[in-house]
């Protein structure tokens, strides 16, 4: 099976950082979304920089900027959303609908359902 172009949303979280690591180890072109409007969190910045050092590309995108999400999705053929609702307010889970809309608009990611 060929290598994929992967976009990981939530890449600095508990699950996301593991997904980024696994994607890079498998040799996939790995793109990690970072939010330009996020407060400066030195640990997250250091994590993002370590991903970049290992070969990941950092992609600036925001749930508050639909076109930035569309542009990020257009770079890849696989989108992984690792956003959790456990440690954030529950409305953040609903933000994933904006990601789904961006995926639909970009039109280049095929939906695969697990059975």
TrEMBL record:
GO biological process: (+)-pinoresinol catabolic process; (-)-secoisolariciresinol biosynthetic process
Root EC class: oxidoreductase
Molecular function (Gene Ontology), one example: lariciresinol reductase activity
EC annotation from Swiss-Prot or TrEMBL: 1.23.1.1, 1.23.1.2
Pfam families in the record: NmrA
SUPFAM superfamilies assigned to the protein according to its UniProt record, in alphabetical order: NAD(P)-binding Rossmann-fold domains (SSF51735)
UniProt cross-references to InterPro entries, sorted A to Z: NAD(P)-bd_dom_sf (IPR036291), NmrA-like (IPR008030), NmrA-type/Isoflavone_red_sf (IPR050608)
Domain NmrA-like: 3-110
Family as reported in the entry's similarity comment: Belongs to the NmrA-type oxidoreductase family. Isoflavone reductase subfamily.
Assembly: Dimer.
Name recorded for this polypeptide: (+)-lariciresinol reductase
Species for this entry: Cannabis sativa
């Amino acid at each position: 099976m060929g290598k994929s172009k992967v976009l990981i949303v939530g890449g600095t979280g508990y699950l996301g950082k593991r997904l980024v690591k696994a994607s890079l180890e498998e040799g996939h072109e790995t793109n990690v979304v970072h939010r330009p409007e996020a407060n400066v969190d030195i640990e997250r910045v250091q994590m993002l920089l370590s991903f970049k050092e290992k070969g990941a590309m950092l992609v600036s995108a925001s749930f508050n900027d639909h076109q930035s999400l569309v542009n990020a999705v257009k770079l890849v053929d696989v989108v992984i959303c690792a956003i959790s609702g456990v440690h954030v307010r529950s409305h953040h889970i609903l933000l994933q609908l904006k990601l789904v809309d961006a995926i639909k608009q970009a039109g280049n990611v095929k939906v695969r359902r697990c059975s």
